[in-house]
Design brief:
One of its GO terms (biological process) is proteolysis. The chain has helices spanning about 5-10, 40-55, 60-80, 165-170, 175-190, 195-200, 205-220, 240-310, 315-330, 350-355, and strands at about 80, 85-90, 95-100, 105, 115-120, 125, 140-145, 150-160, 225-235. It is of the alpha+beta class. Among the domains are: about 65-120, no CATH class; about 125-235, Band 7 domain (Tetrahydropterin Synthase, Chain A). A hairpin with a 5-residue loop joins strand 7 and strand 8. Helix 5 crosses helix 7 (about 205-220). It is rod-shaped. The protein starts with 5 loop residues before the first helix and ends in a 16-residue tail after the last helix.
Length: about 375
């Protein structure tokens, strides 16, 4: 055949080589591979054993460097920092440890220990109105009041973590739990009260009641939070009935104004009447006191005169007569006309009305002859 004469007429057994007189790997000194050029599994294992006998490339320094890299990676995961205003809760095999890690640098055995952080700052949840960040919608604040009116309430809930372990592990989503509890409590309280209490009359009372209910529910579920305040930021009727509601409010305000004016007018009249009544009572008391005092004085004067009369009846009688006549006649105008021989021819006419312009006319004839 052609390859039998190639290479200088070599025979069929050409030194253990191939058709061209040598093994594919070079000289004919290497081991033969069954099936031609494909290496078998034993050759691969032998070559690998020979390479490992030569040692790891780089020697022991490579091993030390690998160990240092692993140690640095472990240390970075084992050391953690708790920021200011937060606390850390370490977990060992998933179970929380009772000790809390305060703000600062801390160490734990990673990976068998991990850490969860909880913020101690005051958090705010706003319910009602349009606020995509708080996952609220327009319908969250619509509530039915006790007098069958629909009100749109927007309020905020302020809370903080009091038990970090309970907050992190007792409830899957404590923020959503607080939101749902506060909204349910507000609907319950608004449903028991008239709409005017929500709008203006008793917002403070509603806030306190909602806070108490929310705190009680949070404690029953063991959320580990404290509800510090509930604040109603706005309360109004729905936009569809706002005009009609405002008209009703204006009518109620007019009613209150008229009632207040009527009360003021009634108080004015009542005050005047009470003042006049008090004045009449004072005048009556003064008149009664004056009459009593005059009567008492007259009685005392009469008793004094009577005592004198008993001692000297005639003198006392004449004195009383003279004093009485002096009092009566002393205030009248007196005209004395004497009769006698020297007054012959006197015309008996006197212009008495002209002489007494301010008193009644009286003529007193006298027959006395003395002054």
């Amino acid at each position: 055949m052609p390859w039998e004469s190639n290479g200088g007429g070599g025979g069929r057994n050409n030194g253990g080589g191939g058709p061209w007189g040598q093994a594919p790997g070079g000289g004919g000194g290497g081991p033969r591979r069954p099936g031609g050029n494909t290496p078998n599994l034993e050759d691969i294992l032998n070559r690998g054993r020979d390479q490992f006998r030569g040692g790891v490339p780089g020697g022991r320094w490579a091993i030390i460097g690998g160990v240092l890299v692993l140690a640095a990676f472990w240390l970075l995961n084992a050391v953690y920092t708790v920021p200011e205003g937060e606390v850390g809760v370490e977990l060992r095999f998933g179970a929380p440890k009772p000790e809390l890690s305060q703000a600062g640098l801390h160490f734990h055995l990673w990976p068998i220990e991990t850490v969860e952080r909880a913020s101690l700052a005051v958090n705010q949840i706003t319910i009602g109105g349009t606020n995509s960040g708080d996952r609220t919608s327009d319908d969250d604040g619509l509530m039915l009041s006790g007098d069958q009116n629909i009100v749109d309430v927007r309020f905020s809930v302020f809370w903080s973590v009091s038990d970090p372990i309970a907050y992190l592990f007792n409830v899957r989503d404590p923020d959503a739990m607080i939101r749902a509890t506060a909204e349910s409590a507000m609907r319950e309280v608004v449903g028991r009260r008239p709409a005017n209490d929500v709008f203006r009359d008793d917002q403070a009372g509603i806030e306190i009641e909602v806070q108490d209910i929310t705190q009680a529910v949070a404690e029953s579920y063991g959320i580990g939070v404290t509800i510090s305040q509930v604040s109603i930021e706005g309360a109004a009727p729905p936009a569809e009935v706002a005009d009609a509601f405002n008209e009703v409010q204006r009518a109620e305000q007019d009613e209150d104004r008229l009632q207040e004016e009527a009360r003021q007018y009634a108080n004015t009249l009542l005050g005047d009447a009470r003042g006049r009544a008090a004045a009449l009572r004072e005048d009556a008391a003064a008149y009664a006191n004056r009459v009593v005092q005059e009567a008492t004085g007259e009685a005392e004067r009469f008793n004094a005169i009577y005592a004198e009369y008993v001692n000297a009846p005639e003198v006392t009688r004449k004195r009383l007569f003279l004093e009485t006549m002096e009092e009566v006649i002393g205030q009248s105008t007196k005209v004395l006309v004497e009769t006698g021989a020297g007054n012959q021819g006197v015309i008996p006419y006197l212009p008495l009305p002209e002489l007494r312009p301010n008193t009644s006319t009286s003529t007193v004839p006298s027959t006395s002859t003395g002054n």
